[in-house]
Amino acid sequence: MAEGHPLARSGDELTLPEFVNWPTFPFEGDIRVKRLEEPVEVEPPRAGEGGVDCRQCAAPDEEYIWVDERWRVRALNKPSGLPAVVVLETRSHYDLGDLSNLLAAELGVLIVRLERAIRSLDNIARVHVNRWGDGSAHLDVFFLARPFGRLQLRGTFLTMWDDILPPISERQWRENLAFIAAYLAEYGGRALAEPPPLESWTL
Ligand SMILES: [Zn+2]
To answer: 45 C-alpha vs ligand 1 centroid, how far in Å?
Structure first.
């Protein structure tokens, strides 16, 4: 933030933005904006910066639901509130701005394919696609399935709702991941997520 910016003055209380009144905002009651801290001189390194001790680079294919020579797709490590949350990663250590034209073109194709795969699950209205890049130095693009009819989950607060809603069942989670992996494998690569075993399908 530039020096002299109105928000840089200490002691100022920031006013609440209009979105706290949106029906999609997950919270109610008295809230206030946190005090904005001074900007740091040097930002801390992200996880795996420069490819050193990078968790994604070190992860075996078995931790993913689908892989090919240049890309891998993983799930979160346990069910969350939304029907599906998956993460697209490069196999090698790149950030978004490092991608060659080939990888950039493939990224575009894979984003569209993953959107179609996730939207093909039952009762999915929309698929949100996010890349933040603040936590990990290794490119990861998040896909979040927004359930059909849940108008409160529309828009920018979906990641919060994913943590707020009770997790979906393990069986449903595995079934959805297996569907997405199989959908991707129709076009190449290898599906690693298997549908849940038959005995666990009983409700
Ligand atoms: Zn890496």
So the answer is: 13
Select from 85, 83, 86 the least CA-distant residue to 72: 86
Could you report the per-residue pLDDT of 153-181, keeping only the tens digit for each? 999 999 999 999 999 999 999 999 999 99
Let me know: does 68 contact 194? Beta carbons within 8 Å: no
From ligand 1's centre to the CA of 50, what distance in Å? 8
- Among left, alpha and beta (phi > 0; psi -120 to 50; other), residue 45 is beta
Tell me, in angstroms, the distance from the centre of ligand 1 to residue 164's CA.
30
- Inter-CA distances, 67 with 72, 117, 184, 193, Å: 4, 15, 9, 10
What's the whole-model pTM score? 0.90
Which sequence spans correspond to the domains of the chain? 49-197
| CATH homologous superfamily, domain 49-197 | HIT-like (3.30.428.10)
* CA 135–ligand 1 middle distance (angstroms): 12
d(CA 133, ligand 1 centre) in Å: 12
Q: Each residue of 42-98: pLDDT tens digit?
A: 999 999 999 999 999 999 999 999 999 999 999 999 999 999 999 999 999 999 999
